[in-house]
Every structure is written in C-alpha cells, then in structure tokens.
Amino acid sequence: MINTTIAYKRAINGNRVFRVQDKITFKNQDPLQLSINDFMSYNINDATSSSGKFDIGAAVMKEYSAVLNNETGKFDGYVFEEADLQAIVGLEVEENAWEDLNKGSFRVVSAKKDELTITIKAYDYMLFFDQPYSESTLTYPATVSQIIADACRHCQMAYDASTIEMGSYIVQERPKADALTFRDVISYCAQIMGSFARVNRLDKLCFGWYKISSIPENIDGGNFDKISGNTYVDADPSWDGGSFDDYASGDEYDGSSFVATDYYHHLFNLRSQTINADDIRITGIKVTAKSEGSQTAESVMKGADGYVLEISGNPLIQTGAVEAVAAYVYAKLGNMVFRPLSISGQSDPSIEAGDVAMVTDRKNRTYNTVITNNTFVLCGDQKVECSAETPTEKNYTRFGPGTKLMSKTKEQTDGQLSAYDIAVQNMNQLAANTFGFYATTVKQADGSILAYRHDKPKLAESKIVYKSGIDGFWVTSDYQGNDANTTWKAGFDSSGDAVMNVLSVIGINFSWARGGVLTLGGSGNGHGVLQVLDTNGNVIGSINSSGVDLTGRFINKKGQEWVKILDSVISAGYGDDVDGLLDLSAQTGDGTRKVVLESLTSDLVLKSASGRILTKDGKALIGTDTSGVYVTNIDCIDDVETGEKSIIFTFSNGEQKMLT
Question: What top-level branch of life does the organism fall under (predicted)?
Fold first, then answer.
C-alpha cells in the first residue's frame, strides 16, 4: 500500500481537496503538465485477481482512463498515443500543505477526440510483457529467477529481485510457446510462489501477497442478553475488564498503534455495500501437473477439504515437482481468513489492489478483507472489491491466468537493450519523475549528527529512508518509525562493504566471488565467454560458442567414481584405484604411436549393442557365449611339407577346427 502520514489519514476522512499533477512525456514533443482543471473525469483501476475469482498468480495491467477538457483547444496538436504518463494525485492535509501520491506510470494506447473532449486510455508497464514467449532464447532447465530475469531483459523491464520467492525452483523442460506470452510466464512464476505479479510505482516488476496478518485482532464485547450469574458469557474469547476498586485488575490487550495502520486500511464511510454472510478460510491447496503427451496427471493436496484453491494447467509446474509447490503455497496461504465483499465510498488514492483492509458496515460490524479489485475515481465514489467464489458456488476455485485487459506490446526497437541498458533507462526515468525528499538531522552528544532523508515530512511517518553517519550509508523502503525496529535492506559502510539487490555495471574487477547462478551472454551481450587464466595471463580454459577448450587435466567425479583426461590419456576408476585407461597416442618400443585400451584391475570386456562379447575371462571369443561354446584359443602353425600356414581354433567344448 502507499505510505501516508497521520495528517493524510485524518484529512482523507474529512472534506477533501485533491489536486492532480500528471505529466505526459511525448515521443517527439515537449512534456505536458496537467492539473485537476484539465480533467472532466479521472479513473485508475487496478487488480490482483480476475473479477469474481480469487486467483493465485494473477498478472493484471493497471488501467488509467480520463477525459480531458479541450473546449479551448489546449490539447490540439498533441499526439497522445504511445506517450508515457506519470499519474500523481495529491491531498491537501493542511491549509496550503499537500501530500502527493505517485500512482504509477502508464503508456497511452488510445486517445479519442470529439469537439470538446479527448478520452485517454492507458495501461501500466505490465503491458510490455504481452510479447510472444517464442522469442525467448533462454535454455532449459532454468530456475524461476532465470526465467523472470530473461523475461524482463527481453521485454526491457526492470524488476525487484528481493520480491522473488522460490527463485531456485528448477523448471526442467521449456514450455510450448505457441500460445504463450511473457506475461503468461510471469503469471506462472507468480503462481509457483503463491503470489500475484504487478508493476510497482517505481516501474519495476514485483511479486507480493495480501498481508492479512497485519490487521490486529478484533475483540467481540458480546451481547447483554446472555448472563450466567453476574458474567456475560457469550463473547469468545472473553476479557475481564477488572474492577473500580483496583484499576490494575483485569486483562490487558494491546490495541496496536497508529504505525500499524501503515499496513492496512480502515474503510467505514460507505456509500453502498454488498458483503458476504460468512468469512472464507483457505483450508487447502491442490496442485496438479501433467507431462506432455501423458494421459495421467500427478496431483498433491495439502491441508483439508473445504475451501481448496487448485493450481493446474501451469506448464512450469512439471511432474516430479508438484509436492514442493503444494507444500510451499499451502504454508503461505493455508488458513488465511477473509470476507468477500463489494463496497463503494469516499475516494482514497492511497488504496491499491493487493492491500488489506478492515471494513465497518452501517451497523458497526467489522470485517477483515483483502482488496483484489480497486477503482479510484477523482471526486467520486471509489469501488473496492474482494472477489472470491463461495464454497457453495464451487468446491474448488481453479486458477486461470490473470485477466488481460488487452494485448498490445511495447514498440520494438532495432536492437534489444541489455540488462545494464534497461537499468540505466529505469534509473533515468526515476530521476526525471522523482519526488523531493525531507531531511532530518539528529544531533549526537559529541556534537556530530546523523542525517536522514525521507519521503514524508516526519521521519517517524516515513517509509523510504536514507540514513547516513560516519560509519556508512543505509537505505530502507519499510521504516518502522524508529531505527531500533527497522531492518536496513541496502547500504555500504566505511570499510567498503556494500549490500545491494541488483548491481548493474559495465565491468567488475574482483578478487573472489560467490553465488548461485552465473549466466553469460545472450541477446545484447552476444555469445557468452568464460575464460580462466594462469598467473602469466595465459588462457588455460575457455568455454564459448565454439565449445570447451581446456589446458591441463580434466576430472569429473561423482561419489567414488571418477574419470580423468590428461594429455592424450583417458583414465577412470573407483576410489583411489585406476581401473582402466585409453591412451590415444601411446609411445611403443619401435618408436611408433598406437591406440591402447587397457584394463588394469580385471579382465577387459567389450560388448556391442547386440550383446556380442569379444573378450571374457582373459580369453578371446568369437560370437556369443549364450550357447556355452566359444573360442578359447587361436594358434597359427606352419606345414613342414607344404610350407603353408594354418589357423587352428580351439573351442570351449574341446573341439578344434583348422583354417588353411
């Protein structure tokens, strides 16, 4: 959810005054700044699930729609299609004091003009993933992290690597890409994580799920009509309020703090409401996968019958990996409780799909819910939905890929951008559209200061915070109101050590490196090359598009078995013993070189595909020994009288045959 100050939370429930500071960047024209007076209507719709469903893995585009007032011809001559638009909505929190919220970036896909107005429709950058997956050059097997990185590189999008879960999950076979888009594949990856996918306000692909646990527990005070003695017993759990004689008596309950509301909304000024009679509790997760061409499917269910979410038809979940996915998703989603509903009320631009909320109806009954669909209407009623089928409507809620609002891809350039170029492009876009910051300095006892830069006027109400001191510089996007409770996710210290998410650079010189996956080449980087040099700078090993070239020895070992290549000799063995070798250029006593195949620890046995045995038990064989008769000896003799040579074959049954 979008972080806001306490002043904002107070002002949004009063007589609100909004402003709009949208900026449109055209392809070949100067940027255009829009204000609230330029609009006749203004809507932003976002979703984390398809309508009427409770999806796992949805990847839905955010939609921006507006009608511009062109009565004076102010916008004549502008080409809106394919322009980029940054949406900024502000609320007056005090007189002449505003709190502006970034609602994201959008690509204009249509602009229709009539005599007095221009109707604009735009979608966020999830749009760029609607390209054929057949264009991907990624080699499988591949991990989820590699699949996402490849999709973002191809579609020229940045991504938040810190939000990827199950990143090491391996997909063995490439999915058939005839009807797949990159957005489909992103959706399938999100499903494996038990998440939804979206593009955040920094224009990065990210993954998330509903933080329903952030809503504090409600206490039910019960009714006045059920009494046992002097005690009201219908409330469960019951809490003892103590007595007036001893104010310290009774039970204590922490009602949370204003900081806790940074993670959920409380919606109570309702215009309309349609609320399900019962909560939904996710009781189980069922995952089904079928191998290509197979008629049988592998299914695993975790949890219990009841309200079971089913994951099927995901080509990245293949047989043999179903158990791992089911266990992970159930551990994350199992026993999640929420109330399906559809409400409308006062508009609040800080609400986003994917947020969680407490909803209080007209009778002061409060429900915990998740927001799957949200439509912000400037100066109108906002519509908020939690879409889910009831258990009665369907025993299993089957996943279908997130609703696609349209299929229009990002304009193709002559050359694909590299991952570095994409990062630079994203950084420059942030620089062009960035908000200002607030500064706080905290004086220390010795007269020195700690400096903070933050996104809200008060440090305690901020989420994005940069902290600097003599020992380093640290960054977080989830400040907890004070340093003690905050986990700093990135930064660097005075020793030169740094912690970061994704590093995009032209070159790196290092003494050592350690990690999980090394990927070289592809697309803009061309053919990948891995080289190993000796102390003199000579190449002693190289892997490139031409193959593998190694100097020295090569050893492959699995368990006790091993094989080694050194010079022209291939040897193999078990443990410390060398069982056999193949010398492809053996030096013999007569000065010639021959190919030598040698068994060192036992007899040499050669077999063909037909089972023909050439040697066995140290004896040469002709044919097979399946009949029990085989050649045991071959002699060459000279006939003294004729001088002719003869060959005598001796068989295992004692018979001999002569060949002259």
Answer: Bacteria
